[in-house]
Design goal:
Arc Repressor Mutant, subunit A, five-stranded mixed β-sheet, D-Maltodextrin-Binding Protein, domain 2, Transcriptional regulator, transcription, elongated, DNA binding, DNA-binding transcription factor activity, three-stranded antiparallel β-sheet, 12 strands, LysR_HTH_N, single chain, alpha/beta
Length: 302
C-alpha cells in the first residue's frame, strides 16, 4: 500500500467515477483501475462495488477511505513541517446541527489557520447524518445535543459507531421569535402561550423520529407545524409568519440578524450540547483549533 494508491482511491470517491478521477490525476483510466484493484486485493477488501450505473462505495470502503484521508492529511503535515513545503490543500470537515456558535468557531478556525490553500467544509445537516459522517470519517467533528428524552437512543448509536460524545455546555430551553412577535418582549413564555403561532423545526429525512429532532419537546402536539431544511429559511419564516422554534438560546446578531431574539421557555429540560468524534482517530491540528474555538465561543455565550 502506498500514499499514491490512497490518493487514487480518495480521488475516485470524491469524483464518483474512474474516468473523472483519471483526468484529475493525469493518468490513464486503465492504469487507475489497475491500481485500485491491486490495493483492494492487497487489503483484502472491496472499496468500490461495480454496478451497471458505475461505482458505489461499499460499507467497508467507507471506513477504509476515512482512514486513508487521515493518513494523507498526516503525510501532508509531515511534508509541510520538515520539507518546508506548502503541501497539498489541508482538508477539514464539521457536521453539525444548526448552531450559530458552530459557524462562528468555523470562521475563527479559518482566520487562525491563515493559509492560502485549504479545502474546508461545514455541513449543517440532519442528526443521523452527523453520526454517519463522523463514523465514516467524512467529518472529524460532529455537533449535536443529548437530553433525557433522546439520550438512550443516540448514545446507543454513538457507541455502535465507535464514537464518543464530549459535552461543551448545558443550555436551558428558549424560543427564537421575530422582534415583531408579541412574545418577544416577555421575560419568559410557556408552551401554552405558543399555541397560536406556527411551530418551525428542521426535518430529519428518513430518520424523522422524535428522537432525532433538533428541537427539544418534539413530542408536544402543536396545531401548526412547518418543517424546513436550512437555517436561513427557518429565520425568514419566523419573521414572515410570526412563527417560533425551540432552541438553545445561543444567538448571534451578525449571523442571525437583529430581527430574531431568544426568549426563555418555562419548561423542564436541558440540552447537553457537545461534540462527537471517532474513538480511533487522533485529533488533527485543525480539529484542535476548531474545538478550542468552540469552547471559547460557547463559554462567552452561556
Amino acid at each position: 500500500m502506498t500514499l499514491q494508491q490512497l490518493k487514487y482511491v480518495t480521488t475516485v470517491a470524491q469524483t464518483g467515477t474512474i474516468s473523472d478521477a483519471a483526468k484529475k490525476l493525469f493518468i490513464s483510466q486503465p492504469s487507475l483501475t489497475k491500481a485500485v484493484r491491486e490495493l483492494e486485493k492487497e487489503m483484502e477488501i472491496t472499496i468500490f462495488e461495480r454496478t451497471n450505473r458505475g461505482i458505489v462505495i461499499s460499507k467497508e470502503g467507507e471506513t477504509f477511505l476515512g482512514y486513508a484521508r487521515q493518513v494523507l492529511e498526516q503525510a501532508a503535515l509531515l511534508e509541510e513541517t520538515y520539507k518546508k513545503k506548502a503541501g497539498r490543500k489541508q482538508e477539514f470537515c464539521v457536521s453539525t446541527q444548526h448552531y450559530s456558535f458552530a459557524v462562528n468557531a468555523f470562521v475563527e478556525l479559518i482566520e487562525q489557520y491563515g493559509s492560502e490553500k485549504y479545502d474546508f467544509c461545514l455541513r449543517e445537516t440532519q442528526t443521523y447524518e452527523i453520526i454517519e459522517d463522523v463514523a465514516q470519517m467524512k467529518s472529524e467533528i460532529g455537533i449535536l445535543y443529548l437530553n433525557d428524552f433522546n439520550r438512550t437512543v443516540l448514545e446507543k448509536l454513538i457507541k455502535e459507531h465507535d464514537l464518543v460524545f464530549t459535552e461543551l455546555f448545558v443550555a436551558k430551553p428558549h424560543i427564537f421569535v421575530s422582534t415583531k412577535n408579541p412574545l418577544a418582549g416577555k421575560k419568559s413564555v410557556t408552551i401554552e402561550e405558543l399555541e397560536p403561532y406556527p411551530y418551525l423545526s428542521f426535518e430529519q429525512g428518513e430518520h424523522n423520529s422524535f428522537y432525532f429532532s433538533e428541537e427539544i419537546f418534539s413530542t408536544v402536539d402543536r396545531p401548526k407545524n412547518i418543517r424546513v431544511r436550512d437555517r436561513a429559511t427557518l429565520f425568514n419564516l419566523l419573521i414572515g409568519l410570526n412563527g417560533y422554534t425551540v432552541c438553545s438560546g445561543v444567538i448571534d446578531e451578525e449571523l442571525n440578524g437583529e430581527n430574531i431574539v431568544a426568549v426563555p421557555l418555562e419548561a423542564q429540560g436541558d440540552m447537553h450540547i457537545g461534540t462527537v468524534t471517532h474513538k480511533k482517530v487522533l485529533p488533527s491540528r485543525l480539529g484542535a483549533i476548531y474545538r478550542d474555538a468552540l469552547v471559547r465561543y460557547t463559554q462567552n455565550k452561556i
